[in-house]
């Protein structure tokens, strides 16, 4: 839907890969489909150096409501094998660490 809106703004009759890429960039969605808050969650867990982080601590550290993290953001991150829930809290998976290691140099994300 957003791509169609951008295509209309750009007076284009068809949607192209370039239009999709432009739209995702404008919405600050990366190649894995992660949004700003998704990346903030990963960043907080990454900064915790492998230790599990409880939901309350995570919520405070990123300034988001616990239920929103649990209901909106966590399912996508778990489904994509970026985080894991343990009895001690949330931790990054190996894939999550690989993603963060790749992003560690840039860490210049902008808030939408």
Order of helices and strands: HHHHHEEH
Q: Supply the number of helical segments.
A: 6
Strand content: 5-15%
State the shape.
Answer: elongated
Oligomer: single chain
- How far apart the termini lie comes to 18 Å
Helical content, roughly? Answer: 55-70%
Radius of gyration: 16 Å
Query: What is the strand tally?
Result: 2
Structural class: mainly alpha
Spans of at least 5 consecutive residues with low confidence = none
Most strands sheet: 2 strands, antiparallel
Mean pLDDT: 88
Q: What is the strand arrangement across the widest sheet?
A: 1-2
Architecture overview:
55% of the residues lie in helices and 7% in strands. Strands 1-2 form a two-stranded antiparallel ribbon. The protein has helices at 2-9, 17-26, 36-47, 55-62, 66-79, 94-103, and strands at 83-86, 89-92. It is mainly alpha-helical and 112 residues long. Strand 1 and strand 2 form a beta hairpin. The longest helix is centred in the middle third of the chain and has 14 residues, at 66-79.
């Amino acid at each position: 839907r957003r791509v169609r809106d951008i295509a209309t703004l750009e007076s284009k009759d068809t949607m192209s890969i370039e239009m999709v890429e432009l739209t995702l960039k404008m919405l600050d969605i990366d190649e894995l489909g992660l949004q700003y808050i998704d990346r903030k969650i990963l960043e907080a867990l990454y900064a915790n150096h492998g230790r599990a982080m409880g939901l309350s601590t995570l919520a405070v550290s990123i300034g988001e409501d616990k239920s929103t993290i649990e209901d909106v953001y966590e399912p996508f991150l778990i489904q994509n094998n970026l985080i894991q829930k343990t009895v001690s809290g949330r931790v990054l998976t190996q894939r999550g660490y690989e993603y963060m290691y790749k992003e560690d140099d840039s860490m210049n994300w902008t808030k939408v």
